[in-house]
Amino acid sequence: MMKALVKEHPEPGLSLLDIEEPQIQNADDVKFKVEFCAICVGETKVYDWNEWAANDPTLELPTVLGHEAVGVVSEVGSDVKVFKPGDRVTVDPLINCGHCYQCRSGHHNMCMDREIYGKRRGAFAEYAILPERSMCKIPDKLSLEEGAVLENFGIAVHAVEVESHDPGDLAVIIGCGPIGILAAQTLVAEGVNVVLTDLNEWRLKTAEKISGCAVINVKEENPRHIIEEMTHGKMADFVIEAGATQSALDQAFELIKDRGTIITIGTFDNPVSFNPFFKMTRREIKLVSTIGRTWETWRRMVQLVESDKIDLKPYITHILPMEEFAKGYDMVKSQNVMKVLLKP
Description:
The protein is an alpha/beta fold and 344 residues long. Strands 3, 5, 6, 9, 10, 17 and 18 form a seven-stranded mixed β-sheet that branches. It has a six-stranded parallel β-sheet with strand order 13-12-11-14-15-16, sandwiched between helices. Strands 2-1-4 form a three-stranded antiparallel β-sheet, with no helix packed on it. It is globular and about 60 Å long. Strand 14 (236-241), helix 9 and strand 15 form a beta-alpha-beta unit. 29% of the residues lie in helices and 27% in strands.
């Protein structure tokens, strides 16, 4: 038996239960002892059981939650080639089949038979099992705690890599959560000038401290006027919308240049509305969404870490025992933290 955080019923809260420890069943299975698992903003919606969670067709209850996990391999199936007991690993939460059109095209994050980890099984537990193809080794220079940030880092790098960038370009990141700041650091590594916007003063100060980029508090300053002045009227070359609100998307359209690209990665609670003709067609603006990461993304992530372009340590603001999960979820919902890690 082992301890695990389980979403049992379609109602607010989680249960800390004793459940059966998972066992190797398939030849490509990798079993690992979970050392840390971070709380995702999306999981707070499941915790509160809001409309977003209730309408998520990928969520099957009861389930163990948690997908931003890091651990140490304890056992492997007979066909596993890459991993052995003692290896430090993290997971790719978009579990792919490896055989469909999307997987064979290099876009395993869009697998046609994809399972999203943490929706039917998860890692808020003492042990977990995933197929070998969904595991990644942690770079030697990272601690296990820092490894728990790699999932967010992958989302950030993938959002950046879908468009090419030139040194001296200007990018705006709307939303100073961990993924937004990681995206800013990734762009800076490419020589791009970055401005971050938000409403939360604590997050703005944290973003400025970690990234070294300029920040704008949209409650106190008009970002359009500032970007217009910085670019002599051209506006931003590239905008990442990570705020997941109508006002954030409206701001993205205001700040992007004609023929520019907006990337949206936020988990919206509610539908948004805009007129595509006026917002996009007349200006030849591209609106692109991204999710997860590909194996090419993982390669870029490792190179950024190995070349000391990214420091993941400042993103870990709290580590709590799994028994204090309610406190951890309250912290994440307050938005005055970066990553809160639970330790089984």
